Amino acid sequence: MFADFIMPYNPNEISRNEALLPPSPNHLFGTDDLGRDVFSRLIYGCRISLRVALLAVLIGMGIGVPLGLLAGYLGFVVDNGIMRVMDVLLAFPDILLALVVISVLGMGIENVTIALGITSMPIFVRLIRGNVLSIRELPYVEAAKATGERGSRIILQEILPNCATTIIVQATLTVAYAILAEAALSYLGLGTLPPTASWGRMLSEGQPLLLRAPWISIFPGLACMMAVLSVNLFADGLSDALNPQAGE
How far from 37 is each of 168, 194, 200, 226, CA to CA, in Å? Predict the structure, then answer.
């Protein structure tokens, strides 16, 4: 959010006279082969990675949760139809499926976000469907049906609130996956386009210079690792806080 105020330099500013400088007080993480400040590009890349991850999770959750609710509650033909489509999507490795979507939509950070949202959708569908299958048999749901409440009202007021914990924890875990996936796609050249900085692109640009200037790749790699580790630890803590009985 405050990258523009934290960055000491313009992340895309080229300075040939300062190319491949090692970490120093003037350039905390050194410079790359074009003289761009690695620290500034790292901070800007964090903004890109988190934005893509959060939007991708919102897309996957926004489509997957309603489909999971419908599949679990209605059952029969609706359930079979939705789950067979999800099975087809799950038959592909996530990165391969994202590559297929990007090949159709084209390169760019917006299309990467959509691709990652589609790859994360089946996880939410299967998870929510499983929850709904157990919740719909509980006495309070049966009582709501007996009183003549509409199915949509039962789903929104009786079932969805009891799936909230599962949705929140899974969404947090999916953010970590999306950060790694965005970095992998940008590393392959399918994510952010030059000169925009992202962690994956920085790793790719630093690979040919790994022995000569290892800081170009080391710092983005550490940032990606720390971000994913932090999100996973946060998800574990969130799961324990929202469902304390699970940890006993």
Answer: 37, 15, 16, 20
pTM of the model: 0.87
37: which strand partners?
31
pLDDT at 123: 93
* Number of domains the chain contains: 1
Report d(CA 92, CA 118) in Å as an integer: 12
Residue 31 lies in a domain: no
pLDDT at 220 over 90: yes
Judge whether 119 and 59 are in contact, CB under 8 Å.
no
Residue 207: give the domain boundaries.
43-247
Mean pLDDT of the chain: 89
Omega prior to 195 cis, within 30 of 0: yes
> Span 71-81, mean pLDDT?
90
pLDDT in tens, 2-55: 888 888 898 988 888 888 999 999 999 999 999 999 999 999 989 888 999 999
Give the CATH number, domain containing residue 161.
1.10.3720.10
